[in-house]
Each structure stands twice: as C-alpha cells, then as structure tokens.
Amino acid sequence: ALRAQQYSCGRWELWRSDSESAHAVAREADRWAQRIHAGLKQEEFRLYYQPQLALDTGKVVGVEALVRWQQSDRLVPPAEFIPAAENNGSIVQLGEWVLDEACRQMAFWQREDMHCPRMAVNVSAHQLRGGIVDTVWRTLARHSLAPSQLEIELTESALLSDPAEAKAIAHELADLGVTLSLDDFGVGYSSFARLRSMPFKTVKIDHQFVSRMTADSYDYDLIRMLIDLAKKKQITTIAEGVEQPEQRELLSSLGCDAWQGYLCAPPLPAERITQFLRQPGV
Ligand code: C2E
Ligand code: CA
Ligand code: CA
Ligand code: CA
Questions:
Q1: Which residues make Cβ contacts (< 8 Å) with residue 21, sequence separation at least 6?
Q2: Pocket residues for ligand 1 (CB within 6 Å)?
Q3: N or C: which end of the chain has fewer CB within 10 A?
Q4: Please, which residues have CB within 8 angstroms of residue 194's CB and are 6 or more apart in sequence?
Q5: How far is the CA of 267 from the centre of ligand 1 (A)?
Q6: What does the record give under GO molecular function (predicted)?
C-alpha cells in the first residue's frame, strides 16, 4: 500500500509539472500570437524579393517573396518567427498579408511595364487548411493579376499531416491556374513520391545539395537524377542557394532551368529589387 501511494504521489508530481509546463508553452504561444498581430497592425512586416534567373538566357523568370520583421532595433529573419506563427495559427493572417503585399508589388511592376513573369510566395501547411483557395482567388482579383503570375511554394512538411486533403487543395489551386512548386527538394524522404502524386509545375533543388554538388558525387548524382526525371515529366527545376560560378556552370551543364542565390543577389527590399528589374536586359 505504501509503495502504491508513493507511486501515485510521484505520478501526481509528474502530472502537475507536465501541466504547468504545458501552460507555460500555451502562454508563450499566446504572447507570440499577440506580438504578431500587433506587428501586422503596426505594419512592421516587410517583404524582400530574390530574383530567379533562367540558366540559358540569364533572364529573370520570377522573384521569390521572403518575409522579414522590422522591429525598432533590427530586421528579424523568418526563422525566428515563422515557426512560432505556425504553432499558434497566426501564420494564416501573416500569410494573407504576405500574399496581398506580394501581389500588390507584382501589380505595380505590371503597371510600370516592367519584366517580372512570376511572383513566388511561400505557403505553410496551416494556410492550406485556412481557406487558401478562396484567399488566393480574391487576392489575385483585387490586384487584377492572372493566376499564372503567381507560384505557390510548398514544403514537403506542409503536405505530411493530411496528404489527401493537401492533394485536394493543391489540385484546386492548380485548376485555378496558379502554379505550385515543391520547395526544399531532397530534404524530406519521399520527395520523389510527392512529385508523382501532386500537381507540381516546379521543383526547387535545396541549397544543401547545391552547396555540396561540386565536392560530393552523391549530391551531384542526386541533382542529375532529379533534373533528368523532371525533364521527362515536364517539371521545371530551380536550384536555390547558388553562391559560386562553378555551381551555376554545373547546373547549366545538367540542364537545370533556373537558379537563385547570392551569386546573383540576396533577397532585396522592394525599392532595390525594382531597380534591379529596371536594368536593361533583365
Ligand atoms: P526558403 O523558402 O527555402 O527560402 C530560401 C532561403 O535561402 C531564404 O532565407 C533566402 O534568403 C536564403 N538564400 C537565398 N540565397 C541564398 C544563398 O545563395 N545562400 C544561402 N546560404 N542562403 C540563401 P530566409 O529569407 O531567411 O527564409 C528562410 C525560410 O523562412 C524560407 O526558406 C521559408 O521556409 C521561410 N519563409 C520566408 N518567408 C516566408 C513566408 O512569407 N511565409 C512562409 N510560410 N514561410 C516563409
Ligand atoms: Ca521557398
Ligand atoms: Ca527552399
Ligand atoms: Ca528552406
């Protein structure tokens, strides 16, 4: 009897501390959600844009929008708040802002008769379930953009929790005429399977593979296989994180379609990407 009592006492202690830490986690998530809502209201978020270039012609094929948070003392990178926003659900609201701002910028370039065929926007799993199809449709209409001017980048993790639902939503988006891109290819385990079952028009070769492709034959071969498969399936390939001329040359020799990376430009604020796009020949 004594042992049982000690045991249950121990369990009770354990339960109590678990529930206290669960409360602390929930409080922390609430604080984050409030800060993000306040940040949106005070217009503290900014979009930066990184150009994507065709490997054969060197022309701009699109730009990728990447969010930052301008706080009084510093520009906070997405790694510091996107995971929290995904956790507490405020990614849906933040994501709607990102989509609207990216489309507003695209509409501006269009009015100015500037060359930028496509805007790529990152979308999280939560947003897929948060009525994304309707949001995308309304946002494109608000800015008078064609669906083909928008590309939605999804990571594999966005598709994992409910693959059937994700697939249905992906097809609705594709039917709308928006193109889908599989981000961070090679980081997950079933990426090849994912390419087969989802309506992706583009696959993005992850930075990790690109950074090792000149030194590691495994990474080189993986990229070569992916590009060959993509070509057979009429899927466009974009290599990300290209930093060295040798990487770009190698990708070009393998028949990769496009690239982005510091070798061309880092993500740039709106005024600077606009200057970039105004250069002759882009
Ligand atoms: P990602 O979509 O894979 O974006 C590519 C990241 O690589 C960006 O980091 C970009 O700045 C960085 N990058 C670009 N060129 C180079 C290069 O040559 N070398 C290296 N080492 N890195 C390069 P960033 O902007 O910090 O974004 C990090 C991640 O945050 C993104 O990864 C994306 O998953 C997420 N993210 C950014 N903006 C959004 C957004 O609006 N919504 C959502 N849901 N996620 C976002
Ligand atoms: Ca991306
Ligand atoms: Ca990526
Ligand atoms: Ca990534």
A1: none
A2: 50, 66-67, 77-79, 82, 95, 98, 122-124, 183-184, 207, 240-243, 261-262, 267
A3: N
A4: 156, 159, 182, 188, 200
A5: 9
A6: cyclic-guanylate-specific phosphodiesterase activity
Give the residue, 3 or 254, on which the prediction is more confident: 254
Ligand 4: distance of its center to the CA of 133 in Å? 23
Q: Which residues pair with 236 in a beta bridge?
A: 202
Give the gyration radius of the chain's Cα atoms. Answer: 22
The CA distance from 45 to 69, in Å, is 4
Split at pLDDT 50, 70, 90, the class of 180 is: very high
pLDDT at 213: 95
Q: Give percent above pLDDT 70 in the chain.
A: 93
Phi, psi dihedrals of residue 121, rounded to the nearest 5°: -125, 135
Atom 3 of ligand 1, residue of closest alpha carbon: 184
| Pocket probe mutation, ligand 1, options 93, 122, 156, 247, max atoms within 8 Å of Cβ | 122
Asked if 106 and 116 touch (Cβ cutoff 8 Å), the reply is yes
What is the rounded distance in angstroms from the CA atom of residue 258 to the CA atom of residue 236? Answer: 8
Q: What is the pLDDT of residues 199-253, one digit of tens each?
A: 999 999 999 999 999 999 999 999 999 999 999 999 999 999 999 999 999 999 9
ipTM of the complex: 0.98
> Which residues contact residue 199 at a Cβ distance below 8 angstroms, ignoring those fewer than 6 apart?
170, 171, 174, 180
